[in-house]
Amino acid sequence: MLDGGIYVSTGAVINAQTGPSAFLAYIIATFVAILNSLIYSELACHVPKDVACYGHAHSILGELPAFITAWSTFIDYILSASLVARSWSNIIDTFSGNRIIVLYSHGFCKSFIVTIIQNKSMVSILILINFLLFVSVLFYNYRSEF
């Protein structure tokens, strides 16, 4: 349930920006991870196969919500990997004496993912797309009783 980012830049962010409120954020994140684990265990009891989130969504909701769930998970994995890679590059740059930042500022090694992550509007659009996909999955099999 833990991603690599918790081990990469936690100390630097707590030291520079958050302070003691980070402890409360970790408590809330722990509660969310426990709920996520309980949901997956309930789904594993309902569908006793070795499947991922696509298989659970396909057996319970159908083809379209399973497709949307798979692509949402794929986007989540890509964003998580790019954020962890960016944090690790900052650590490696610190160990190299800030030589990588100097090369990057002169136009060397420009990366597409770093540009997307620095562009906050693009991240907001990706979050909005994931939210809309989530809402569409919720109301896909909704049947009114009126």
From TrEMBL:
Gene3D superfamilies: Amino acid/polyamine transporter I. The chain crosses the membrane at residues 21-40, 60-79, 100-117, 123-142. Its main location: membrane. It holds the Pfam family AA_permease_2. The keyword Membrane applies. It is a multi-pass membrane protein. The keyword Transmembrane helix applies. One of its GO terms (molecular function) is amino acid transmembrane transporter activity. InterPro entries: AA/rel_permease1. It is found in: Membrane. Keywords: Membrane, Transmembrane, Transmembrane helix. This is AA_permease domain-containing protein. It comes from Schistosoma curassoni. The lineage of its organism: Eukaryota, Metazoa, Spiralia, Lophotrochozoa, Platyhelminthes.
